[in-house]
User: What shape does this take?
Amino acid sequence: MGLFLNPDNRAFQTAIDSEIYVDKTGLIEFTNKVLGTQQAFICNSRPRRFGKSITANMLAAYYSKGCDSQELFAGLAIEKSPAYQKQLNKYDVIHFDVQWCCKEAGSAEKTVAFISQVLMEELREAYGEYIPEKVTKVSTALAYISDATSNRFVIIVDEWDVLIRDESTNKIAQEEYIDFLRSLFKGIEPTRYIALAFMTGILPIKKFKTQSALNNFDEYTMLDSGVLAPYIGFTESEVRVLCEKYHKDFAEVKRWYDGYQLGGYHVYNPRAVVGVMLRGTFQSYWSQTGTYESIIPLINMNFDGLKTDIVTMLSGDAVLVRTNSYQNDMVTFKNKHDVMTSLIHLGYLAYEQQEQKAYIPNEEVRSEFVNALEETAWDEFADFQRLSREVLNATLDMDADAVASMIEKVHMEYTSAIQYNDENSLSSVLTVAYLCAMQYYFKPVREMPLGRGFADFVFIPKQYYAHIYPALLVELKWNKNADTAMKQMKEKKYPVSLQNFADEILLVGINYDKKTKEHTCSIEKFIGGSNRITK
Assistant: This one.
């Protein structure tokens, strides 16, 4: 048992002993399945506070010969797997955290030498008889050990990308580190001495000019998490269980912290969920993750369309993003798509894989975006907010003519950015027009099932404002009239179904006439309980 070689299970024990532990040991069934195969090289990237280190500690505790984890895993999901006993504590495990190593080494340039020195000392202590004196490289030592003993290693690297991410301009340190990883994992010989390689980090593997540095790894990312989706964060069913245990309103937790959709799962940031369960307050726990300051230079990059897309996403809409050109580092950005792809990996944007669209996942992250934009004093954001505040105030005052006029102004002033040509464009204009509402309302719900149909947009006030602000029910029409929209909402009983969310509901009908390019609006008030509608 050493610092990196065959560690004990105390780190994972700490996670299990915590007040909230969500069982993710089902992942081990997958890693057991790929042991010793071509699929045994795995890179699982995800944002901070999404359980990367707990996952690494769990795998080390399960496979390491340096401990007896029989009692530790008793009662957990993996215990039911047929292969559980066969692989439990049967492997030589190498486990190190690159971020910790970098700090201990004293600098990025000394990190590889530090890791190599510790590993060589521990390997010689355990298997010195098989390692020739002339051997200085870890990969060569592992090859000699495996050749003599037939042992195969499980290698777990946590925060693998810290030198790529935090030392993005330090080419010497990066090249030395990549050469180290290449010698450890790439080629025919490593497949002989490695049973499983599992790397965790925020960024996917960097795309190097040769495109072959570590291309034998299967990658599971926030763009495509594949079979690892239920192990990336907390799933919706897991959050429901926690809400029941800690007596929290699941609907409120969902509105604040849901939003990432991976492989058919709704995935929640574990840090946020644990925070609201233990502290009881609905707030942003995101700023505590350490990535907040890193997004400011990203969103300030002068790429055409970037700022417009960010404002559009802040308003609750999604935008198309091309992810293929991103180089998986924090220095190479060619266009707005690279910036948004980086924000997806950092967790500040979510990604809809089928439609290839990015969006702000939830209220928690949206509040962090707003803080970042206000700190950078974006003129564009300030202009949007100012006009949007006027739209919201006019809506609350039930001044339909003013609402129509200002939505038309949004259209006219930002038409080049929004490409106002069809009903989908009208939806984008509406979300931008009500940007300011995000201070008091949750992200607008599109196509919400109500009564005998689906409402175009529903703005539900946040808990703190539920008795101050009415819910907003907005129906859009194209080349018809606002009264038609109002009639539809009444006939299909939309407001009756919505009255559980607010005491008062404003019905807002909006129409755009393509021929005259004019907007019209109609606003009426529905008072819950009395079923009265007033103009």
Q: What stands out?
A: The chain is about 45% helix and 15% strand.
